[in-house]
Amino acid sequence: MKALYFDGTLSLRETERPQRASGEALLAVMLAGICGTDRQILKGYSGFRGIPGHEFVGEVVECDDAGWIGKRVVGEINVTCQSCQWCRRGLRRHCQHRTVIGIINRPGAFAEFVALPSANLHEVPREVPNEAAVFTEPLAAACEILEQIPIPPGTRVAVLGDGRLGLLVAQVLQQVQAQVTVIGRHDDKLDLAKVWGMTVAHAGKQPIPAKSFTVVVEATGSPQGLDQALRIVEPRGTVVMKSTFHELARFDTAKLVVDEVTLLGSRCGSFPAALGLLRSKQVKVQELVSKTCPLEAGLEAFQYLEQTACLKVLLAPGA
Ligand SMILES: [Zn+2]
Ligand SMILES: [Zn+2]
After folding, report:
1. Cα–Cα distance, 165 to 312 (Å, whole number)
2. Is-above-0.90 flag for pTM?
3. Ligand 1 center from residue 207 Cα (angstroms)
4. Are 156 and 209 in contact (CB under 8 A)?
5. How far is CA 311 from the centre of its chain?
6. Are 175 and 300 in contact (CB under 8 A)?
7. 144 closest CA partner among 272, 284, 313
8. Could you tell me the distance, in angstroms and rounded to a whole number, from the CA of residue 243 to the centre of ligand 1?
9. pLDDT over 90 at 158, yes or no
10. Cα of 35 to ligand 1 centre, how many Å?
11. At what angle do helices 164-175 and 136-148 cross, to 10 degrees?
């Protein structure tokens, strides 16, 4: 099969189809999304070597359970042992022996085929097209915030970063009637948030008052984002960290102590919640697609994303 492979540099390769272990399904990838984590992986994040890609929608082509064959699915990215202390406590996404497709020790979805335990699969509702279903994973990550902290209606929330994840987080928080301000540096992306009824602020052009938000979600994808988040969060407020990057972040820890700010890490979330939002069209995702490329143009797709700072670029292995 054809796949994008990273071994210090990214290249298009002809490789073996992934071996399907017992309990696993083999999926033909229909669409896969490139996310900030993939770009960080190319910079060295997680030390990953192999086929990247963890946001995808596919069709089941092989599975022990024949009921799955032919189904259109999305898949949870963490593959867990089911027996360690974290798995037994119901914190499977924190399994100490986990592999993660395209991120930790497991081939990912920038390929014609990907293997995943059938327990990780969720069928995509008929009303949700592939171009929306491919957002299930990042949208689930956005939904995770609501599982971690209460956000009562009217809460003043800033989403720092107007990229793919920031715009998903902002929409999820708008669903619970938070008062959302998106802070970014790209007029076109901020315009989209404005159309959706959010307050927007251009970080380079207008001053953002200090200590003005109860919750700040850091989704800039950059190590400098945390320091900015700590500046604009109010005393006793919460900074939710969504960015994963390869570099170390520097920030003023005294600010954290003096203002008694809670710093909250936030990663993967519930797929059923995300599929529910996509099915009811409460969250707009197809507007975020900037370009769809065949898998063979994968290298150009990464370059395009880097050069244009556009929103979502999708790869279509079947095209
Ligand atoms: Zn991702
Ligand atoms: Zn485990």
Report:
1. 10
2. yes
3. 30
4. no
5. 12
6. no
7. 272
8. 10
9. yes
10. 5
11. 50
Q: Which ligand is nearest to the CA of 142?
A: 1
Residue with tokens 């052009």: 205
| pLDDT tens track for 15-27 | 999 989 999 999 9
The two three-digit tokens of residue 50, written as one number:
């192999």
Tokens found for residue 90: 């119901």
| Residues 267-291: b if buried by 16+ CB within 10 A, e if exposed | ebbbbebbbebbeeeebbbeebbbb
Can you give the pLDDT at residue 250?
86
Centroid of ligand 1 to alpha carbon of 29 (angstroms): 16
Distance 80 CA to ligand 2 centre (A): 5
| C-alpha distances out from residue 5 to 17, 19, 39, 102, 165, Å | 13, 16, 13, 10, 24
Residue ranges with strand state E in the chain: 2-6, 10-14, 24-34, 55-63, 72-75, 78-79, 99-100, 113-117, 121-123, 156-160, 179-184, 199-202, 213-218, 233-241, 262-265, 289-294, 312-316
In angstroms, what is the span from residue 39 Cα to ligand 1's centroid? 10
Ligand nearest the Cα of residue 32 is: 1
* Amino acid letter, 141: A
